[in-house]
Amino acid sequence: MVSSIVVYGGSGALGRAIVSTFIKKQWSVISVDFSANPEATTNVLLERGDSLEEQGKRVLGGVVGQVDAIVCVAGGWAGGNAASSDLFATSELTWKQSVHSSLVAAHLASKTLKPDGILTLTGAFPAQKGTPFMIGYGMAKAAVHQLVASLAGPDSGLPATAKVNAILPVTLDTPMNRSGMPNADFSSWTPCEEVAETIHGWATKAVPFTSGKLVEIVTKDSKTTYTEK
């Protein structure tokens, strides 16, 4: 039987890497995003004007049957402190991008994830402490961290033997990041393909992990380490 995965944010840089990795390994891949990923087996398309409830209904209606893994890598970055003129707009946007998508992924997992399946969400390394220069973003990612802890507890709604965690990258090596920071030290950035391979290891149980943990992803001198917190 073919294994299956839902990639929430399947048209973003990390999402595309995950879709590509699992397709190459002959999984059935459902991409959820605002635009289609042509490499995916199936696409569930979102509408930008959807409320949280509408987005949830759209995703639940597009995923048929049971799946082995759900990975939510939807999100976006926005800076700004409490004095920023666009604080409210950017904070609302990052909340929708990270928290709404993670919540829908969690609800989807409660309905479609196989008993021994995995759910991986996306937090952020800096959001483990204060983020004064990116308040809205830090709040949203910290909420995702809390969601992981809640989902790993008893009576969370997930299948009893399913496992949940979150990846906490520092900086991913994406075209957008390279364009925005052309003089950065790229040897300290994590390749998306490497993260995708690690998630595949979790999904196939070739790489063990502890449910409820946040996984710090730190790259130094082009070598990446994964540390559970």
TrEMBL record:
Keywords: NADP, Oxidoreductase, Tetrahydrobiopterin biosynthesis. InterPro entries: NAD(P)-bd_dom_sf, Sc_DH/Rdtase_CS, SDR_fam. One of its GO terms (molecular function) is 6,7-dihydropteridine reductase activity. It holds the Pfam family adh_short. GO terms for cellular component: cytoplasm. Its EC number is 1.5.1.34. One of its GO terms (biological process) is L-phenylalanine catabolic process. The keyword NADP applies. The keyword NADP applies. It is an enzyme of class 1 (oxidoreductase). Belongs to the short-chain dehydrogenases/reductases (SDR) family. Homodimer. This is Dihydropteridine reductase. It comes from Podila minutissima.
